[in-house]
Model the fold of this input.
Amino acid sequence: MTTSTDHTAVQVSVPIYWAMPGPTSFLAELGHLLEAHSAVAVCLERGAVAGAQHFINDAVKRACHEPERVVFLDVHDGSHIESDIGHHFARVQLSAMELAHWSQPPRVIVVLTPFSARSSERCRGFFEEFVKESAAVSGGAVRLVLVWSLLADRLPPKSPCELRFNGTLSEDEMHAYVTQRLVGRRGPGSTSLARHLVIEFAGADPLVAEELMALHHNVLLQLPESLASMPLKDASSDQAIGALKDWLEVRAQAAGSGVAWKRLEQRYWRACVRALLPWIEERRLPVVDKLRDSLEDYLFPTRGVWKKPLPWRPGSFQDIPINDLEFNDIVAMSHRDAADPFKGLDETANAALTACSKVKKVRDAIAHMRPPAAADIREMILSLDALLAEDGARNL
Done:
């Protein structure tokens, strides 16, 4: 695992990402368009996602029917498109106009992928000339595909058929992607909070998810501030989305930075709701069991029930049996009656009381729709994991 200072470039997990419904649908749509159009511009809005060229090429191959064939041309600064294409048609050179009029069988799909600014301009000219000429041709035997990075050049070539792919994932897809990437990994402690923080702060961007998954759990707990430790490749552009966009607004002290900060806090709060509340509830009864002897002793005069004062009804009480006590109830019992506060009878019970106080801090923040302090979360997890370590493998 990399640290917060290791800015090694990350990439998506190719087998997991390209199995997601969104990327799969994009590839299927490409196949459908090739059936109906002689020229298709495939525009990658956020640059080339890892594996994109392979899967695009594979989708083009699947769109072919025997005896059709596919010609893939990677175009670099030193490439001569007319000569490179002509080679595959047994010609010295083949211009865009000649390619559009080519009618000899079998049908051919030519895929151009530029890899530099100069090669992009050459591909633009070739593609646009092909489009213009093929509009007046019926029964041409060639289909032309141009793979264009909008991150490298925001102005794509003119095309009657353009397919855009932004590389983002839906909420459900991101949840599935991160969950599969983190199979077998939990944290901090026995919680799944790190996974939920990654899901919330990655939003729709799988590369941000990968950046976050490379951070240590302790750094993730410091979100959103820990976004500052990530290599913000597009910090000066309009490519950032979701939490990263909000963070850039906050960092730049833009006009909407206050609202952006609240959105970031809400992401943290949602992660805590999804990861910590069920985790806490699962541990309530095991903690009560650590306190059972002390509780039975303290509540003996009331036959094992706590007479919880009702603040809106002076002099009225709610009877709560031991098994139904919440963490907040136990903390209240230890502080409310100064003359006779609830205390643990042994070291384990006192440790359980301390854990209850730490849980209360975190739950109170969540209940008031605030993200708990990272230090409070860390202390709560350490306290409960240490207290219930012997029971963990057996019961939780």
Q: What stands out?
A: Residues 1-6 have pLDDT under 50 and may be disordered. The longest helix spans residues 257-282.
